[in-house]
Specification:
Layout: H1 2-20, H2 27-32, H3 39-44, E1 53-66, E2 69-76, E3 95-100, E4 114-121, E5 136-144, H4 162-167
Parallel strand pairs: 3-5
Antiparallel strand pairs: 1-2, 1-4, 2-3, 4-5
Length: about 180
């Protein structure tokens, strides 16, 4: 009986721990960025936070490759606290750059796609951007969210008046049920 309780507790703890990891970003990066300042403060004084671990997200505005490096301009959006997915409907507090030491495909990381980024704030002089006014994050881990499908609006549009729909509902077609001509 004791081993049965131990097994039950073990599987229960695995289930609970597994339920906590719904973010595509690993727990170590989430923990490193847990005490990050607000995006408004980060973007106002980026040089004061060089080396700070951050977890940011948004919508890609532009993606460029140059000499084995990639640079993405991202419109910041706040992240959902449980999934780390950017909330696209929320207002933006600004823009930031994702700098990656490697090439990404600009067709895959195209304009309008949603992305979550984990990394460190770096000096603009390490990159090809030479302005100290931009927040630049060196991407250590990032996740491109799949496009969500929109609901289908291709249903039959009623062409009858409301009173006609009461007596004969939209989609009621007796000839398709076998009650066509001569059924009586």
């Amino acid at each position: 009986m004791a081993t049965q309780k131990k097994c039950y507790f073990f599987f229960l703890s695995l289930f609970l721990l597994g339920g906590c990891s719904i973010s595509p970003i690993t727990g170590s990066y989430r923990h490193k960025a847990s005490k990050q300042p607000s995006f408004s403060l980060l973007s106002a004084r980026p040089s004061a936070f060089i080396g700070q671990n951050v977890l940011l997200g948004g919508v890609i505005q532009r993606c460029m490759n140059h000499e084995g490096e990639s640079l993405m301009l991202i419109i910041q959006k706040p992240l959902d606290p449980t999934t780390d997915k950017p909330i696209v409907q929320s207002p933006s507090k600004g823009k930031f750059y994702l700098w990656y030491k490697g090439k990404v495909d600009p067709k895959v990381y195209s304009t309008g796609k949603t992305i979550t980024v984990a990394g460190k704030i770096v000096s603009p002089f390490k990159t090809s951007i030479e302005s100290p006014h931009y927040l630049i994050v060196e991407g250590e881990e990032f996740f491109l969210w799949p496009k969500e499908s929109l609901p289908s609006y291709t249903q039959k549009v009623p062409t009858k008046t409301i009173l006609e729909n009461v007596w004969e509902p939209v989609g009621f077609e007796p000839w398709t049920t076998g009650w066509g001509e001569g059924w009586w």
